Amino acid sequence: MRLDGVFPVLPTPFDAAGAPDPVALARLVDFAIEAGVDGIVYPGMASEVETLTAAERGMMVAALGRSLAGRVPFIVGASHADPAEAAARAREGQAAGAVAAMIMAPPGLKADVAAHIGFYAAVAAAAPGLDLMLQNAPAPNGAALSPEAVAEVALGVPAIRHVKEETLPCGQHVSRILAAAGGQLDGVMGGAGARFVLDEWARGAAGTMPALEIADAHVAMWRAWRAGDRAEARRLYTLTLPLLLFQMNFRVRATKAVLRARGLLAETSARAAGPRFDAGDAAELQELIATARPALTMHLP
């Protein structure tokens, strides 16, 4: 199945007691659908996936499937260094309605292309009938494969139909993957928080997979780009980029704070490691939300 467009990665909302909150997740799903997204990704790094237990992860994936009810395609995050574990997570998503499983190239395999082919082939064999998406992320989280190595791995495993490319410089790497794959992939998606999204699209990327908080702006940007209105896409990009740069530092805490400002999330607690806001950061975030506000189409802060 060819996937293109805006596929936000949903955050994991937690309730006041610190437990994953499927009711709040359902509200975020409804916002994404209302915004016009082309699909949804969960769980990923933007979902604090590394902090979830296996039981929590399974519960939230199942809850997402019920909330989504097939309204748009769903890609399940299934990254794990053990191919058997990655396949189990892929099957869990498949049972919830996922059309593909996104799996990060394991950093422990380094640049060994044959080892990566073996890894993904083992996952594909243990999760038959599900397309795979190779996520190429920078070290230390990912293997940071070269674009040519990404294409070689993807072409070596027929189940890999898509790539999510996040190593820098993203635009050049999209061009090189597409050239090396010779038209045999269904598409390459951009990542890196949509901070380089117009360059990626100009080079043939099939879409973008950012965090959720400004999904409506990203949908409007994508639609303008597809319609040939590059000036409008650039205007929206210019309005939103400062907020995305702030999000680069504070990650999911920024995502959740923006969602709260938009009335979409009541509880913004996070388990993830990383910096927290001080008073100056909180004030700056409000200024950046105000800058991005003209690009938003609903739930205005």
What's the main sheet like?
A: 8 strands, parallel
Low-confidence stretches: none
Predict the CATH topology of the domain at 5-212. TIM Barrel
Proper CATH architecture of the domain at 5-212:
Alpha-Beta Barrel
Could you state the CATH homologous superfamily of the domain at 5-212? Aldolase class I
Question: Secondary-structure blueprint of this entry?
Answer:
Blueprint: E1 5-6, H1 22-35, E2 40-42, H2 54-68, E3 74-77, H3 83-95, E4 100-104, H4 113-126, E5 131-136, H5 147-156, E6 160-165, H6 170-181, E7 187-190, H7 197-202, E8 207-208, H8 215-226, H9 230-250, H10 252-261, H11 279-292
Parallel strand pairs: 1-8, 2-3, 3-4, 4-5, 5-6, 6-7, 7-8
Helix pairs in contact: 1-2, 2-3, 3-4, 4-5, 5-6, 8-9, 9-10, 9-11
Characterize the structure shown:
It is a single chain. With 301 residues, the chain is α/β, with parallel strands linked by helices. The chain has a domain at 5-212: TIM Barrel, CATH 3.20.20.70. The protein contains eleven helices and eight strands. It has helices at residues 22-35, 54-68, 83-95, 113-126, 147-156, 170-181, 197-202, 215-226, 230-250, 252-261, 279-292, and strands at residues 5-6, 40-42, 74-77, 100-104, 131-136, 160-165, 187-190, 207-208. An eight-stranded parallel sheet has the order 1-8-7-6-5-4-3-2.
